[in-house]
Amino acid sequence: MAHAPAPVALPTIEFINTEATLQDLSSAVTLLFEPAPPIVAHLYSHRPYASFSALIDETEVLLSNPDKYLTLQEQLDVINAHPRIGAAKANLSALSLIEQGYTPEDAAKKVDATATPSADDEETQRTLKRLNEEYEAKYGFKFVVFVNGRPRNVIIPVMEERIRNSTKEAEMKVAMDDMVAIARDRLKKLNAAAKL
C-alpha cells in the first residue's frame, strides 16, 4: 500500500479517497487545519471528495453545526489545535509563521538564534502573551483569528475587543469559521506552490 508523501505538499485527492490511512489523512489535514483528530475522523468517514476544496466544504459543514457532530470537548480540541497568536517561532508550522506576519525567510529558518528582537517586537510579544492568557481565562480555549499575514501588533486591538465584547458561544463560532477561512487560504497557497 502506498503512503502519503511527507506533508510538504498535499497528496492527491485520489490518494486520500482510495488509499489513505487515517494517519495519512491526518498528515494532509494538519497542513490545512493543524492537528485536529475530530476533524480527521469525520472527514475519513465521509470520503470520497471531488477535491480538497470539497474536503474543506465538508469540514465547514462539520464546524458550522458542531453540536450536531462533535462533543463540547471535541470542539475545544479542534479550536485548541491552533497555535497561539504570537507563539514562539519554534512552535509554529511554516504556514502559521507566514500567517502570523513573519517573513517567508523566517518560516524557512523557523528560528534565527542570532536575531535580536526590537523593543516594539518584545512589547508586542508581551502584550500578546497577556491577551492570550486573558482570553483563555475568560473563554476556556485559544484565540483563533484569520491573521492572513497582518502584523501581530494589528491583532492586538482585535483580541482586546473580543475579550471585552463577546461571549463563549460567539467566540467558538468565530474560531471555527476562521479555521475554515485559514484552511481555504492554505489550500490556495499550497496549490500555488505546487505549480512552481
TrEMBL record:
In which organism is this protein found? Linnemannia elongata AG-77
> At the top level of its lineage, which domain of life is listed?
Eukaryota
Q: Which UniProt keywords apply?
A: Purine metabolism
Return one Gene Ontology term, BP aspect. purine nucleobase metabolic process
SUPFAM superfamilies recorded for this chain? UraD-Like
Record domain Oxo-4-hydroxy-4-carboxy-5-ureidoimidazoline decarboxylase: where: 23-188
UniProt cross-references to InterPro entries, sorted A to Z: OHCU_decarboxylase, OHCU_decarboxylase_sf
Please spell out the taxonomic lineage of the organism that makes this protein: Eukaryota, Fungi, Fungi incertae sedis, Mucoromycota, Mortierellomycotina
Name-wise, this protein is Oxo-4-hydroxy-4-carboxy-5-ureidoimidazoline decarboxylase domain-containing protein
UniProt key word RNA-binding: no
- Claim: ATP-binding is one of the keywords in the record: no
